[in-house]
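Chain X:
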Amino acid sequence: MQKAVGFLYPFLFITFNKNKQEGEPARPLKRFRGKAGGGSSVFSGAVLPESEANMYKTYSIEVGGRTLSVDIGRVSAQANGAAFMHYGDTTVLSTATASEKPRDGIDFFPLSVEYEEKMYAAGKIPGGFNKREGKASENAVLTSRVIDRPMRPLFPKDYRNDVTLDNLVMSVDPQNRPELVAMLGSAIATCISDIPFDGPCAMTQIGLLNGELIVNPSQEQWANGDLKLTVASTAQKVIMIEAGANEIPESKMLEAIYMAHDVNQKLIAWINEIVAEAGKAKHEYVSCAIPEELFAKMKEIVPPEEMEVAVFTDEKQKREANISEIQKKLEEAFADNEEWLGLLGEALYQYEKKTVRKMILKDHKRPDGREITQIRKLAAEVDIIPRVHGSAMFTRGQTQICNVTTLAPLSEAQKVDGLDENVKIKRYIHHYNFPSYSVGETKVSRGPGRREIGHGALAERALLPVLPSEEEFPYAIRTVSETFESNGSTSMASTCASCMSLMAAGVPIKKMVAGISCGLVTGETDDDFVLLTDIQGLEDFFGDMDFKVTGTKDGITAIQMDIKIHGLTRPIVEGAIARCRDARLFIMENCMKPAIAEPRASVNAYAPKIVQIQIDPEKIGDVIGQRGKTINEIIARTGVKMDITEDGAVSVCGTDKAAMDEAIKMVETIVTDYEEGQIFEGKVVSIKDFGAFVEFAPGKEGMVHISRIANRRIDKVEDVLSIGQDVKVVCLGKDPKNPGRYTFSMKDVAQD
């Protein structure tokens, strides 16, 4: 039995914590009064019966062969909703809170999603000087985005109260990934809260190991499998897909998606039971919807035909100028109506949105005049930046990305200090930058935000399956995508540019990878929809879906799906995946291959050269030396960089071939089992009365007895040798008196 004691002078509260047994009747509290501290103050308290202390209820379900459970009413009672989640020993506290009033002066729903990784959850103390968790890791940012994307569309569109979904990772069981537990916890906490939400929704992850699909794989299975798929669903439809895949065929991907969707249906039924028993009534809120009278008046001033002319142009700048003129016209008309003026920006946005959607859905007419399956004009070129290790630029319409590749020794790979012990090093890194000038705006750069991190991670996942192994290509690789111009789907342009940049740098990738985005506009029924290949910014803003797919000619390497509606039917998902396959094959054949068809035979002239040899792992200590003395000596003498892995792979990196060859020779000398008759060049490092010690490799010395120095008798070693003198010696074998040392002779080998 646990006991918790809390003091709030002059009152003393004592609580004995124990789960309430189901079916046990409630008992009245025992109250008492007495003297406190021997004075006149009176304290009062209440001792709860053990069966009633900390009354909460636990709900459980079997998922993936393990028990998933949630405690409701156990912790965080002041949050609007709280779910204390357990999946095996993985424990996450998920809470949902909302402000009482809407935030003034905004035209969007202010939702914040946080995923907090506490190092104690994995039994670790944070690294660095400040032993406290710092800013969110990349994994935390990506997890927050995966939670945000499916849940955001399920909140009311006219809701302006601040909402925060917070997930605190408190314990990590390697068999149960905390990211998944947090996703489900956020959904449950929101569903049982009084916050308006059109749920429930649920999420499931699918892995693929040895050809078998696995529901909610462990951290190790997730890291080593051929598929990392996360699917979110409502009771009717799929609402979010996030995937990284090792060239998974489209048919297999669809099988995995709908396996996850089926599991989600069981989870949703379970969540509905929880809500029925523990859910709160949803609170009323102030609607921020635009009045219909305002729309009607706007249409009188700017008829739909005039709006169509303003919107339908293939130049983003011209379209924005047209809309700006319409806004000025409406501002003049509503100059005396302050209320409507304050709503005009959002109202004009919705008017423009309805116009675009109507023309696409009814007439299959796109703003830039393209057919619904047509890709914008494409262009690609490589080597546009001098002296870097590799560069390429990919242009699709008004979206333009320049990617630069940098190669470095494996020692410069990114170290990851996180909760997953299977992820410690990132050898390939893709960074994405989105400056304000790319969309014609002026804004000070504050570093990458969540969007930039998410786009970079998507392009990174796209290329990972085709990268050569460390044994084939012992380099750390970084690619950086600079957005020169943006009008939709820069992450897919980054994938294409990265692929070409890697090939230009001489990275022997296995296959070419391209990416494209498919959009959607829906009508009143599930069967009334139009899929759009290669959506531009306007179609993304006003459409219902941004379905990004990357892959090779043989299969999918990554998926990211965002929607603004309450889900997608299977025909839409199947159609989008098929449409993206056709488009990416077209891009590779007609744009990328003419620019660069295959990886270059060798790395760029300005890139470091790396030679790798294999040594006996038991000899690693000899190469490193005591406290790194030997390896540091090799580096100091030759100017190279060196890496040694646990399995004995030694990588030598440099730009001077002669220096690299010298370093390799030194390593080979150190790890060789010396035999009688081998000749070495060395340096005299110590002189004794009985002979001299010659260093024939960093950290390796052998003795030349005074009788073996010359073909004549010498009285003193100093008469012939001096410290630092270069000599040639021949190995005579191991010293009989000291088997750990070798003896050498100078007189038996010709000296220059």
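Chain Y:
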Amino acid sequence: MKELKHYILVYFFLLKLTWRASKRLVLVLLGTGLSQVFRLLINVLIPKLLIDGLAAGLGFKDFILWGAFLLFSNVVLARVPAFALAYVQSSFTEVSDHFSYFMAEQVMAIDFAYMEDKKYIGLKEQADFMLTFMRPHINMLKASIDFMKAAGIVVSVLAIALSFSLPLLLILVLLLVIQIWQGKKSVQAVQSYVQALKSFNAKIIALVRFAFHPEKQMDGRIFCRKSFFADRYYDVTVETLAAKKAVDHRRGLSLSIIAALNILGQALCYAYTGIRTVSDLLGPQITLGSFAMYVSALTQFNANFVELSLSLMSLSHAVTTAEPIYEFMHLPLRREKLEELTGGSIEAVNRKEDSVSRRSMQGQMEFLELPEQIEELSFEHVYFKYPTSQDYVLKDFSVSFKRGQKISIVGLNGAGKTTVVKLLMKLYTPLAGKIKLNGIDIRNFDTTEYQAKMSVIFQDYKLFNLSVAENIACVKNYDAKRVSAELAEVGLTEAVAKLKYGVDSVLGKDFSEDGVQLSGGERQKIAIARALYKNAEVVILDEPTSALDPKSEAEIYENFHQLTKNKTAIFISHRLSSSLFCDKILLLRDGRVEDFDTHEKLMEKKDSLYYKMFTTQQENYLYD
């Protein structure tokens, strides 16, 4: 029962998304089912009236009229499923595009934490695979047409058959129950195959990524034999085909049994109604018109019950393949919840969150209006660990950044520098403690509006397969003057001018054969120009200049110092160029604040980690 309820939920989930994608399509499906029920009733009742009417002296004119109505309705209604299917097929692309859009909506809406967790990345890839290759939404539409038609006919005929012979109907139902049982066996085989597909899909995606990823091409060519990936791809394909063959064998056996029982049921119908027509041995004798009606009704009942079973099998298959999509689309938007920290060396803090913050975490309150200006950003006793990790990245982390300050965050690898930025950007939520804007917990602000106040360039930033200008502005209708100004600020005016289409040149070859490939340094400068174009109050650079030489990096930071004169700026770099231009340096060690002071003050501490890091680098890079 629980499994059936889940299937129904997934089915209506697919139907709901299809309704969002194309309301007309759903109405066409419903109309198709109703038209075929109407056609059946016409074909069952009108012949009875004609045959019995002839025996009773029906006039020639009435006979012609009823005959013409029967012929016309069949000609018209018989074409409805074909037209409906043609419309459905023509709508496949539109519906599929909408489903892909709905998936993209969910990716952008859910917590960023999902997209850094292998478990949920795998779930999304499975959903993408099923959506692209198994097309459960399309199979659901096709099966729904058959199901609605068969279900309507079965219900209509059932009412007629009950008035004729209950024992015969019970025998037919018994045969049909056996057919359903066989259909269930087939469905179970399909379900097992779909579960196996998830594993096959993961293997194929991993192989394709490794074999075709541009960043892995050199290693693949140098170290791997030509057939290295082909052999493994072939092995997975053979494994997949073997599983598919077993499913086809099981379905073939079930369909053979179902077909045999269907023939047996039809034979019983003809024999029973024939005897009732010529004698009263099995019940009251019936007319020839009734013979035609009951034979038609009973055989239609049997055939459409079989079709109903087959369409249910197809729907079950569609639902099963849609489960990864359903699961991904129903992920809670907020993954992380407040945890009570107890024991060990970590103090239990913020156990009693105020009701406003709790409601904010649960998404049950209206967000507060953001202040016009960010005067202060502060961390108060923040604890945080990633969902897939047991170790805390930040422990009792407290610091405050004032408006207009230039802050450099430094520390050894793994100290928590990037984590500070992710928390500040509301990509993650602290497990304990608070992050405040002007003294207000940032959880009380709408995330989109809050993030609009900030601009960040991560170390693993990504550019899009769009034009240079669109990469900088991130809007279609951009301000050309501002784009040119930001290119000048990062020193790319000349380089972009040399491109074939200037700022309209597309990056990468995915969307355009004329797409350009920029150097690592040029790509980073475009990412920086994008951050400047946003014109946010807070600008964060998380090691975006790692591909630049020390001199170019120092120039970038010096320019940023001037460009962000009236803004709050946070710099993270494994090289300490930014320290020379910043008001304060935040030194992290093992997720805690070890020091927070000016460069001059920190350099006075000869035994400090900062002094050792800076002097070591100074030996390699000459700083003035």
